[in-house]
Amino acid sequence: MMNHQHTLNQKIVSPSQLKDLAASWKAEGKRIVFTNGCFDLLHAGHVAYLSEAAGLGDKLIVGLNSDQSVSCIKGPKRPVNNETTRATLLASMFFIDAVVLFGDDTPLELIKTVLPDVLVKGGDYTVDTIVGAQETIANGGSVEVLSFLPGYSSTSIIEKIRSSS
Question: Whole-model pTM?
């Protein structure tokens, strides 16, 4: 019988492990896709976005904001789910190959480490406002902006829950 928890934990990697993993995938000729976010309350919009991102290459790496980083971005009452929970939920998705936590304001150092073939962001970004876009393009990669499914937002879900209690 397979130990699924072990498999999930193997997908959650440190930045140094990620560097080695990305190098081995590149050596195998795999197309690496990188995206990042808080992914506080995982919802159908996240799943659709991440699945679409995975379809742009062979390996999907998700940079995950640490708890401290989420609090700085979203406010002191966030995240609702801690980084261990958020990382485990992401790692459970079959189309995500690696999850790496980062505590900086942006994932720029991770992007410079990985130099993905495709850098993906969702929403209303433009290429010139995406952190790591210049580095990715300079290395021969591309940058894609995917539209979010309308009607899904962790913030709106949290507000709905708080107003109903």
Answer: 0.89
